[in-house]
Write a structure and sequence with these properties.
Blueprint: H1 3-21, H2 28-35, H3 39-60, E1 62-69, E2 74-82
Antiparallel strand pairs: 1-2
Helix pairs in contact: 1-3, 2-3
């Protein structure tokens, strides 16, 4: 992956993360169109965010995760519990 590709992925992941922590729903198809990538890329980005949140829980004491809302066909951030 070249520098532009890395920058694009970082901006995309941070954009999705920002939406999630802001309480917004994230639709995989809409994000794929917005960033000009396929839905698999968005899925991998969400997976990366989930992994980050799992690791971050040890440091922050908050167990946040990204869940898939089947009824609305989107992803949302949910605070599971306070450690």
């Amino acid at each position: 992956m070249d520098e532009d590709g890395k920058k694009g992925k970082v901006e995309r992941v941070l954009g999705i993360y920002t939406q999630l922590i802001g309480g917004h729903a994230v639709n995989k198809a809409e994000e794929a169109r917005r960033y000009g990538v396929d839905e698999k890329s968005i899925y991998r980005d969400i997976k990366d965010i989930r992994n980050f949140l799992e690791e971050d829980a040890e440091n922050t004491g908050y167990a946040n995760t990204v869940i898939y809302d089947i009824a609305d066909n989107c992803y949302r951030m949910e605070q599971l519990y306070l450690i």
